[in-house]
Amino acid sequence: MLTNQTAAVGLALISAVVIIGSLAPLLYPQGPYSIHLTEQYEKPSFAHPFGTDELGRDVLGRIVWAIRITLIIGIVAAIISAFVGTVLGGISGYFGGWVDHAIMRFVDLMLSVPMFFLVLLVILIFGGGIYTVMLVIGLTIWPNGARLIRTQFLSLRELDFVKAARVAGSSDFKIIFKEILPNAIFPVIVDSSLRIGTAILTEAGLSFLGAGDPSSLSLGWMLNEAIPTFRSAWWTGVYPGLILAIILVSFNLIGDGLNDALNVRLTQT
Amino acid sequence: MDLFRYSIGRVAQAIPLILLLILLTFFIVHLAPGDPVAYMLSGAPNVPAEILQIMRHQMGLDQPIQVQLWIYLRNLATGNWGYSYVYDKPVMDIVYPRLLNTLMLTLLAFALQIVVGILLGVASAVKRGERGDRLLNIGTITIWSLPTFWVGIIMILVFGMFLGLFPVEGMVTAGMSGSWLSRWLDLAWHAFLPVLTLALGGFGLYFRLTRASMLEVLRQDYIMTAWGKGCAPRTVYFEHAFRNAILPLVTIVASNAGYLLAGAVLIETIFSWPGVGYLLYVSIAGRDYQMIQLIFVMVGVLTVLSNLVADLLTAFLDPRIRYD
After folding, report:
1. Which residues, at least 6 apart from B93, have a Cβ–Cβ distance to it below 8 Å?
2. Any bridge partners for residue B90, and if so which?
3. Residue to test with chain B: of A11, A125, A141, A242, most B Cβ within 10 A
4. pLDDT grade for B1, boundaries at 50, 70 and 90
5. Least CB-CB distance to B142: which of A125, A208, A249?
């Protein structure tokens, strides 16, 4: 993976972002909410490299803190979706028959309904705490991963080592998780890295529309606050979005690089 | 099984799906915590309980939920699609003009995405491995990963504010009068940035799909036969490869309508474009249940229909599908 240029670039970018985010308490110990009403809407300057917002808060400082929330939400949601997708896809691919049919129909159903709207509705009506957001996003982006896992299981279950395990008396459950899954893990990883991107983008979109987590600051939320003023105070919109874009681009580059590596692997087997 | 019977089967499948969507929307909206009447009166102090009761009764909210559902379904069937208590008008009166506005943006962007995506995808497949292809790939991934609402912000700032080339918001110049032509041009001028932003966000998918599909097709034996026959490159690529590569694209293209609308919500908010997306956003914040319900059902139905069209189209183009 390190030799793949695309993935390497993505990895470099996201590492930079993660490092900056984790250094937040060091760089801006006053936190993202320190208000200085005497310094409202200042243009980017040496003291405030990204300017200040409507309450005099330093934009760069807020960004550095917001990186954490954005990344955490994305990663947790992606993990949830990987979990659900792997379990359902694994069961579907392994057992086949009507189980497979039923699960795939469910997957089709989920893919045919405009999920973004459903998530928007659920969150806006039931309240948008950070855990709700992570959970709901995780529960809606898993279908693609499930399909992938299922395909993997379909091909892997015919191989000899599975037959051997069955003959040796392993239960289906054990076979799925101890035999097949470790071999199917690479596509799961590839898909998960792309899912992180999707999750982060979804959360950003929701926060942007005001349907996110008002109490914890994410990059999408910063963009939401910038809506009324970005035409004049451009730095409130450009910079948070720029960091968000860098995060998204890096995850997609990584996923794409991994995808290429995966395809090479598949064509070799 | 012939095409006709397959079509009937698929249409029959779509109907329960639509019903399911209607039910789902209804339950989510109505089981939400919070009382719309209380919300509507949240500014007024100490409203007597009887008045709240009367309002609830008028809006039919004091009935048990099954009764409400039945009334809702009956209304839907008879053409009464809801009354907005926020706008004080039937819901369709508000939605209909905005629907056209949204469709204008969405369809234009859609067309642009497809055309650009396919062209670039073919070019990338044909010129595979050359340096331009690698750059194109990374470039496309980058553009596609960018959050559309941020791209919209950048567009407005760069082309609208700094360069002053395009309007920064809205659909028409306020208070404009003039000839039919000048009004159309004004509309196009306002629509340019939103459409471009929407298109940029989505063309990446078609690019990758076309490229992957073309590469897959170009590996086939019949392509080698074509080269061996001495066909000109143009013939090989367009008559043989492209036509076959296009097939899986049709399904994806037609079933992507749902995502397009989601993007439209964000773009409309940024550009203050008076469309359904923006309306939905405002309605959710204002607890306008009937409006929310109708928009959701519409979006859901549109998505189901576009999936249906995708399936039928694919079945028409590829006879193998019908025997599944």
Report:
1. B87
2. B83
3. A125
4. low
5. A249
Min Cα–Cα distance to chain A from B94, Å? 19
Write down the ipTM of this complex.
0.80
pLDDT number for residue A2 = 47
Using the beta-carbon criterion (under 8 Å), do B147 and A124 form an inter-chain contact?
A: no
pLDDT of A76: 92
Q: Which residue has the tokens 């590996």?
A: B219
Minimal Cβ distance to A238: which of B157, B261, B269: B157
Phi, psi of A217 (to 5 degrees): -90, 120
Angle between helices B243-255 and B180-218 (to 10 degrees): 130
Query: What pLDDT does A117 receive?
Result: 77
Q: What percent of chain B has pLDDT over 70?
A: 86
User: How many CB atoms neighbour CB B99 within 10 A?
Assistant: 16
For residues A49-73, average pLDDT: 84
pLDDT tens-digit readout, B210-232: 888 888 888 888 888 888 888 77
pTM: 0.81
> 3-class DSSP state for residue B288?
coil
Question: What was the pLDDT predicted at B40?
Answer: 64
Of the two residues B44 and B241, the one the predictor is more confident about is B241
State the maximum Cα–Cα separation within chain B, in Å, rounded to a whole number: 88
As a whole number of angstroms, the distance between CA B41 and CA B55 comes to 10
Q: Which residues of A touch B255 (CB under 8 A)?
A: 111-112
Angle A216-A217-A218 from CA coordinates, rounded to 5°:
115
DSSP bridge partners of B89: B84
Residue A52, strand partner residues? A58
Contact between B212 and B124 (Cβ < 8 Å): no
Angle in degrees, CA A225, A229, A230, rounded to 5: 90
Long-range contacts formed by B283-286: CB under 8 A, 24+ apart? B283/B84, B283/B86, B284/A120, B284/A121, B284/A124, B284/A125, B284/A211, B285/A124, B285/A210, B286/B86
Both tokens of residue B125? 């497949």
| Tens digits of residue pLDDT in A190-207 | 888 888 988 998 889 888
Name every residue whose Cβ is closer than 8 Å to that of residue B65 and which is 6 or more positions away in sequence.
Answer: B30, B31
